[in-house]
UniProtKB/TrEMBL annotation:
GO BP annotation list: gluconeogenesis; glyceraldehyde-3-phosphate biosynthetic process; glycerol catabolic process; glycolytic process
Organism name: Gossypium barbadense
Subunit structure: Homodimer.
Keyword Zinc belongs to the record: no
Key words of the record: Isomerase
Protein name as it appears in the record: Triosephosphate isomerase
Protein family (similarity comment): Belongs to the triosephosphate isomerase family.
Tagged with keyword Isomerase: yes
Pathway involvement of the protein, from the record: Carbohydrate biosynthesis
One Gene Ontology cellular component: cytosol
Length: 253
């Protein structure tokens, strides 16, 4: 199965109503490749999800940035997978490194969240990635394999999973991984999937890159054979997000 290019915009904890309207207007007016070529998902903070969904062009979709690990109930401040389904939010980002680092989300907890979100019918962008210290000590693959294993052990339907490789040292730092660095890890991850999950799933699962992707570096990254798209932070709040979506055309040429 061909892997359709995937571009996600992770707005993180940013935005006012006015800013949201502005971003959506830019996206709605943009001429981008068709849905057959690229899948586009924007992920605003929870409070703007329904607002964004109501304004956003119908060929783009919406993702939440997190959800609770199990069925909803007495969990003050949390948002359940059931609620996202109820609001027809199709996607959720799980295991972002900011949550792993700042909110102590463990591999196991992330795996459990992925399992629960999938069981409710959500599609999941599962994030993995090593810190600078881990990279410098040569443990990048061991770290991302352990993170992937915790997720893979809980996945029943890989059609609904996108794996986002986001090296922590590249997030919000302006220090993008070189195309060769990204390709190396993506290729190893695909090999890992091949050996531990299966050949068909390794061939069809999208592995996207995140970490200081912008309008200037996206094409070169997109040209790498195992880079199937992007998860974009800062640049997803700017008009250049449209250029990043257009990087999908690199795969067609
Ligand atoms: O964390 C990211 C996307 O989830 C990447 O953030 P930046 O693109 O701002 O580096």
């Amino acid at each position: 199965m061909a892997r359709k290019f995937f571009v996600g915009g992770n707005w993180k904890c940013n935005g006012t109503t006015e800013e949201v309207k502005k971003i959506i207007t830019t996206l709605n007016e943009a001429e981008v490749p068709s849905q057959d070529v690229v899948e586009v998902v924007v992920s605003p903070p929870f409070v703007f999800l329904t607002f964004v969904k109501s304004l956003l062009r119908s060929d783009f979709h919406v993702a939440a940035q997190n959800c609770w690990v199990r069925k909803g109930g007495a969990f003050t401040g949390e948002i359940s997978a059931e609620m996202l389904v109820n609001l027809s939010i199709p996607w959720v980002i799980i295991g972002h490194s900011e949550r792993r680092a700042l909110l102590n989300e463990s591999n196991e907890f992330v795996g459990d969240k992925v399992a629960y979100a999938l069981s409710q019918g959500l599609k999941v962008i599962a994030c993995i990635g090593e810190t600078l210290e881990e990279r410098e000590s040569g443990s990048t693959m061991a770290v991302v394999a352990a993170q992937t294993k915790a997720v893979a052990g809980k996945v029943t339907n890989w059609d609904n999973v996108v794996l986002a490789y986001e090296p922590v040292w590249a997030i919000g730092t302006g220090k993008v991984a070189t195309p060769a660095q990204a390709q190396e890890v993506h290729c190893e991850l695909r090999k890992w999937l091949h050996e531990n999950v299966g050949g068909d799933i390794a061939a069809s699962t999208r592995i996207i890159y995140g970490g200081s992707v912008n309008g200037a570096n996206c094409k070169e990254l997109a040209a790498q054979p195992d880079v199937d798209g992007f998860l974009v932070g800062g640049a997803s709040l700017k008009p250049e997000f449209v250029d990043i979506i257009k990087a999908a055309m690199v795969k067609k040429n």
